[in-house]
Amino acid sequence: MRKRKKPVRKMNRTMRTKLIVLFNVIVLALCGLIGRLMYIEHSSGDKYEKKVLSMQSYDSKTIPYQRGEIVDSSGTVLATSVAVYNVILDCSVMTSKEEYVEPTIDALTKCFSELKREDLEKYASEKKNSKYIVLAKKLPYDEVQPFIEMQDAVDKDGNKVNPNVKGVWFEKEYQRQYPYNSLAASVIGFTSSGNVGTTGLENYYDDVLNGVNGREYGYLNSDSDFEKTVIPAQDGNTLVCSIDANIQSIVEKKIEQWNKKYSDNYYEGAGSLNTAVLVMNPQNGEILAMADYPEFDLNNPRDLSSLYSKKELESMTDEESMDILNGLWQNYCVTATYEPGSVQKPFTVACGLDTGTVTDDMSFLCDGGEQFDRWVSCVNRNGHGMETVRTTLMDSCNDAIMQMTYRIGKENFLQYQSDFGFGQKTGIDLPGEANTSTLVYTADSMKPIDLATNAFGQNYNCTMIQMASGFSSLINGGTYYQPHIVTKITDASGNTVSTIEPKAVKQTVSESTSRQIKDYLYDVVTSGTGGTAKVDGYSMGGKTGTAQKLPRTRRKHLVSFMGFAPYDDPQLVIYCIVDEPNAPDDAHSYFAQNIVREILEEVLPYKNIYPDEKKTGRNKGLDVTGENAQYTGEHNPVARRDSDKKKTETKEEENEPEEEKQE
Amino acid sequence: MSKQKSRQKGTAYFDYNLLFIIIFLLCFGLVMLYSSSSYTSANKYGDSAHYLKLQVRNILVGMFPMILLARVDYRIWRKLGGFAYLVSFLLCVLVMLPIPGLVRSSHGQSRWLNLGPFSFQPSELAKLAVIIFLAMLIEKIPKKLDKFTSLLKVGLLLIPLLGVVAYSNLSTAVIIFGIAVCMLFVASPKYGQFIIVGILGVAFVIAFIFLASYRSTRVDAWRHPETAGDAGFQTLMGLYAIGSGKLFGKGLGQSLQKMGNVPEAQNDMIFSIICEELGLFGAVCVILLFILLLWRMMIIANNARDLYGALLVSGIMSHIAIQVILNIAVVTNTIPNTGVILPFISYGGTSLVFLMGEMGLVLSVSRGIRLESMKQGET
Question: Which CATH number goes with the domain that contains A431?
Fold first, then answer.
């Protein structure tokens, strides 16, 4: 082919062919490898893809949200969540290099005194691959901080001082704390297992208080936080309550004082089965204080040691102690039902006045009782004589009230009772409000004797919150406000999420009826049975109650006082009940009146309500037991609350033993 | 006709196709290197571009030998064949001696020589030296190559260097052996002998594999990567990466396996990251790019002005082909794990500089081609 002769050796044909062959062999080999790639993809692509995804050690950490706070009307924190830290050891990191182990253990034992060197060394040798060992739980930040400082410390060149401290990290958690321990315990409630509200506002507003957990995605790396995605936690909302911590603490202090005084007074045991006080603003339905006794510590709700001796606790079964705890956690003001007694009388009178069936100028002859299918007696067995409507309330005369019901009639009475909210839930924002709809009469089931006894507060059941809410409407001009505790919900940074305005539900009585009732009740306190409750210098009204409990033969009483102040423009409604005072003769409302007076003496000035009357020196120098109400009966160590041996003559018994009513 | 005349005749040629492919491969390599190394280098050095910067430096350094060798007439190397062989042999011996400060170890094997600011692997030089040496040798005795004995003689000449290299770096020895076989195959008119040599070579490799203990755990890792524990880890992770890439991959930069799972993702295993991010499609494209590169070299070799140039180019072509094949075969677990890098794409200083130097040689050979003779060559 070549014509030219060349001095330089060139590739001959064979060589070229062979080069092409070589090239083809190479191409063939590469094609073979492509085939191999396809085979891998085809045969195990899915499997390998899953392996890859499963291998991703996303360091996915939950960032806990902070549960919202509960604060009182002036911003005092009643419940809050505090960040605490768990100390976690990633042993596999610590033991990944020999030189990490010693400095890390040194640092841990130095900063956390409760950690023992032997334990840590045991982890290092026996649990080498463990990635999650909890060394300490729920430490506050200031206990954790020295370690973090040491870990992050850098010298002036920016190098870490302790580069070999590895594998320790902290897990943030929130712990619920109640700064005032037992204050408003049954209203606030507590949480269990982290952020589950169990009772009280914690339970009712659980969703509002709880936030949404955040998440931190990233690739696990002990040195760096490279490639991290953080979805921040949404903290829960804060509840602003109408509860005033100062009023609440005054109320609780007085209740406790009273109960301390009367404990072991006549029987061995507490001063009363239950003492409960409700203070609310009649002009808008806001609850200012709500307390019952005995109380419990919110930070330690399962601890009964303050109420029972060690011996008693040991003898209790789990079931028994759980029953006691459940009773303790209940909010008496909302969940308990009882027969109210004579505090019902103003409602009956208001019903009569409002329907026009009873007028101010009417008078009734009290001859000591009324005859139905059996005799129902008045407080005064001999009769009060002629009673006007006003004196009926002042004397708390049952006979006159019963006679009024003849004029009112059961339709009117039941209609008004329903208007006042009896037999219905008030809808207060607390859990477990008692349903009393089956504990009141209907037009069909009500016989004349039921009407007569209902009219002075026996034979039907109500709750304290029903009573106080209905009473507020009686004295505020007739507007029924739904009682509520939470007035505002704010987010974690303090911005208002929603405001809960006072909810005027209905008009119960006319303004003139309200004015008239207020006037009567003023006289009850000034010169009637409610005198013990009078705070000298303040105009106030109220009504006493002494209800006989079932079974009537036990002759045990629930005594109460419900009042308002000041007279012209009522700012406070206070309702106090004492269930079975520990006294030889317990049928006296002045147990409750004394508590109310003591509370109001401090609360009225605190609320900037100034004395509006001349001081007369009335009730001067009385303590919570009341000078005239010192029933320090002979202590009877054998007597038990339920032993009925002792028969005491009652001076102020309001009604005859009645036949039981189905409850 | 004299040399001078033939030079003046025809148009001067320069293979821009080849240059373009080289530049493309280098740039693609930088992209993949950055993608596969950014995570680990950020963790290790606090700078995601740590390896990228070093590789850019390597490329810039490699530009000098490439441009130099492309401009200088390659025929001057003919005289230096024996010298290059000797120098590389001595350096390979030197690197085996435990001289502190001069020899650097990595992965338990000493392969690096420290020379001031640079360190380099003499075994990389050995590959180039063998190509230059063999090209010189074969050009002198082309007629004798049809005899099997002369093939053996050439083989005997190579054995000292081969042995020294194999002592510390088997894979490089295999590559050198492969280059030699390929060059002899091109030069020799026979076929049968090479089949025998090929079989012998495979037998030699297998024997060596089973003799060296650390390599036989590699064999175990090769056959059962799932159960081989740490030894099979790299292979297995590479396979996971390939398998999870599917047809079109997860997208550039989306590899999960590079997040510390595939060890040294920017080195030997970079192809597995290419498979994961660009999928089978991307992998095939890369392979086609290499085939294109080899094809350009084959064209240049076939049209070279003289036999020496043709042999040089064939040797370089074999070198690149063998490295590509071995690397991909390792990544796909077709053969046991050996440390062979993917030319132009994997991270590595010495090998890149020498590869670029070799490309300079090829370009230099291409400059010697006269267009009219090329036409003849292509017919």
Answer: 3.40.710.10
